[in-house]
């Protein structure tokens, strides 16, 4: 029986640990703070721990859902942990810069690890149902070896290219999350302020080439200004936009449009909405106005 250590119990890490256990795999879930582990207690085939060595030592595969490259380095490249990593497969599934993934991969490979990246598109509902879109940065041999395991998370994992390529593709996707949400919020705000029925707006938009399904997914949250219970918090979108700008800028790509979106995200965070769903960009685009006396 394969033992999987899942490191990092944020929203997606917890859901991933639960999904692995639900599909019959033995899971060790690790997090520094014990409170993040509480929702997982009592789940069959899933043990929780705040002891990193205890999570990694018995594992065949180590799955990373850590916040960023710095967090990965502080966790895995600690002197006490490095010696435990030989002959293990390390799979990074979060969002980091392509250069970070390549550098971390090189260091882990030098320790005897088999490292590859598999960032995802989709959120907690898709993860829990095993319907994520997986972008894999690996060798063809690594991909074929782990394809069946990756299908735990999504039915058709896609080999993008070597390590770094999937990380770059993930940033390209998350940049679209910010840009599409900002654009839709601005159009919706104008429609509302002009007194046009929202359904009329959508009656024209939905059958057009301009439509994206994410618009309907975020519409009701924006109309209700209900940004609680996030699947992807606004503050994480800011981090990913910065990573995109860093990677794109290094390739000579103009990032001014992304910086404009970033300003909207910063405004939402300044409104105290950093930990809420990224549909909160609507609050930054269309602040509540007081009725005239």
User: What class do helices, strands and sheet pairing give?
Assistant: alpha/beta
How much of the sequence is in beta strands? 5-15%
Count the beta strands. Answer: 9
Mean pLDDT: 96
Provide the low-confidence segments as ranges.
none
Order of helices and strands: EHEEHEHHEHEEHEHEHHHHHH
Distance between the termini: 70 Å
Shape label: globular
Approximate helicity band: 40-55%
**What value does the Rg take, in angstroms?**
20 Å
Q: What is the topology, as strand order, of the major beta sheet?
A: 3-2-1-4-5-6
What about the largest sheet?
6 strands, parallel
Number of DSSP helical runs: 13
Describe this structure in words.
- The protein has 293 residues and is α/β, with parallel strands linked by helices.
- It has 13 helices and nine strands.
- Strands 3-2-1-4-5-6 form a six-stranded parallel sheet, with helices on both faces. A three-stranded mixed sheet has the order 7-8-9, sandwiched between helices.
- The protein is globular and about 65 Å long.
């Amino acid at each position: 029986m394969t033992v999987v250590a899942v490191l990092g119990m944020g929203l997606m890490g917890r859901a991933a640990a639960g999904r692995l256990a639900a599909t019959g795999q033995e899971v060790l879930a690790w997090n520094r703070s014990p409170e993040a582990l509480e929702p997982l207690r009592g789940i069959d085939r899933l043990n929780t721990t705040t002891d990193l060595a205890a999570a990694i030592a018995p594992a065949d595969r180590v799955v990373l859902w850590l916040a960023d490259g710095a967090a990965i380095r502080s966790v895995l490249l600690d002197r006490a942990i490095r010696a435990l990593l030989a002959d293990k497969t390390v799979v990074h599934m979060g969002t980091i810069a392509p250069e970070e993934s390549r550098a971390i991969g090189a260091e882990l490979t030098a320790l005897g690890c088999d490292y590859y990246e598999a960032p995802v598109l989709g959120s907690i509902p898709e993860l829990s149902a095993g319907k994520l879109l997986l972008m894999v940065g690996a060798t063809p041999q690594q991909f074929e070896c782990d394809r069946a395991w990756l299908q735990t998370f999504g039915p058709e994992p896609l080999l993008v290219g070597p390590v770094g390529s999937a990380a770059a593709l993930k940033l390209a996707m998350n940049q679209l999350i910010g840009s599409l949400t900002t654009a839709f919020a601005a159009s919706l705000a104008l429609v509302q302020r002009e007194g046009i029925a929202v359904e009329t707006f959508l009656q024209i938009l939905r059958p057009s080439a301009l439509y994206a399904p994410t618009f309907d997914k975020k519409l009701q949250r924006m109309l209700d200004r209900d940004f609680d219970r996030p699947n992807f918090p606004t503050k994480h979108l800011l981090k990913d936009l910065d990573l995109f700008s860093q990677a794109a800028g290094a390739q000579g790509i103009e990032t001014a449009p992304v910086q404009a979106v970033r300003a909207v995200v910063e405004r939402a965070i300044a409104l105290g909405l950093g930990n809420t769903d990224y549909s909160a960009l609507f609050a930054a685009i269309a602040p509540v106005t007081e009725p005239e006396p």
